[in-house]
Amino acid sequence: MNRAIRLFSFIVISLFVSTAAMAADVATLQPQQWQKIQEHAIPGDIPEIRGMPTQVELLMPASVPEDANEAVLGYLGATDSIAFLVFASLFGVIALFIIFIMVNGISRLDKGFSGKVIKRWSGLSISVHWLGAIACILLMLTGLVLACGRHYFEPSMNAPSWASLVGLSSGLHELMAFPFILGYVLMILMWAPKQIPASYDLKWFAVLGGYLNTGKKHHPDAGFANAGEKLWFWVFALFGGVMVASGLTMMFPETFVVTKNTANFMLVLHIVSTIIISAFSVVHIFMATVMSEGGMSNMTSGYCDENWAKQHHNLWFKELK
Fold first, then answer.
1. How far is 22 from 19, CA to CA, in rounded Å?
2. What does pTM read for this prediction?
3. How many CA atoms lie within 13 A of 238 on its CB side?
4. Torsion angle of alpha carbons 140, 146, 149, 150, nearest 10°?
5. DSSP string over 166-221
């Protein structure tokens, strides 16, 4: 556990240190004196004013501001592509999963429900999970409006409704950042020790966890977390950290003293992380609620059926016995 915590701390600290390093180039303002004002009188006409008022100072940059990074601006300028990728990371993945379930079906318990339950998650873990999960879902939905709304929603809305939707989404997006960060940190610290990769995880991926209903059924070995759950956890740990660091940088630019180029680069990182996290979140939700029979009770009651544990997490079940 200590090793996992040190690794997580190193990743988070590295993200913030790199942000501060990129934000070092800041223009310093200095005063510049203006010339005195002169009035040139013209008989029978309006006096002509020449020069500028006395005792006036204009703050001018001591150094020339940095040039805009054209590569970053090019990525941000492709708003139609960004909107499509963000939209597809949610609805495209949902469509693919629906098609997969229609063709393959769900993973049912071979021996049905035993009626005997095993405690899998503590009440604290369940609370932390839903704290982060609800905030994450609201962040994805509001981010969808902010990233894709102009292309997919605005054309079918009137101006006042669109303005209200954007204002609500923007405010809620910033508000939900804080419970998400709290849930993110707690989940990483609490669950990292159970997410360490093992050699048998490769066999799990080789048969796609035994979820394919074609040919002979395979139920690969899995501990408390199977290989798919471990992959999701570490993707969430990495890109969730990038999302948190980039989001805080953009929310508090004065605190982190960011330049425009840094802010633009943080926005690119935020968008990329959003696309990846959104796609994995959809997979995670489908696997927990639809794909695995008996799986949803894990994060509602904290208990799972004994046959579910034997079929999907056999090594963990053996440890309990």
1. 5
2. 0.79
3. 8
4. -160
5. HHHHHHHHHHHHHHHHHHHHHHHHHHGGGG---TTHHHHHHTGGGT--SSS-----
Q: Which has more confidence, 14 or 249?
A: 249
**Which tokens is 227 given?**
């290989």
Task: Please state, in angstroms and rounded to a whole number, the distance separating the CA atoms of residues 138 and 120.
Answer: 27
Q: Which residue has the tokens 């074609």?
A: 214
What confidence tens digit (pLDDT) does each residue in 286-314 have?
999 999 999 999 999 999 999 999 999 99
pLDDT at 320 over 80: yes
Distance set, CA 25 to CA 59, 250, 253, 309 (Å) = 18, 16, 13, 55
Specify the DSSP element, H or E, that contains 37: strand 37-40
Q: Which amino acid is at 148?
A: C
d(C-alpha 232, C-alpha 82), whole Å? 23
Query: In angstroms, how far is the first alpha carbon of the chain from the final one?
Result: 23
Which residue in 176, 174, 151 sits closest to 88, CA to CA? 151
The greatest distance separating any two alpha carbons of the chain, rounded to the nearest whole angstrom, comes to 108
Closest CA to 58 of 31, 37, 36: 31
pLDDT score at 39? 59
pLDDT for the residue 24? 44
Query: Where would I find the H helices in 218-259?
Result: 227-251, 253-256
Give the separation between CA 209 and CA 199, rounded to whole angstroms.
14
Lowest mean pLDDT, pick from 15-29, 152-166, 218-232, 258-272? 15-29
97, two tokens: 């999963």
Give Cα 53 to chain centroid, integer Å.
Answer: 52
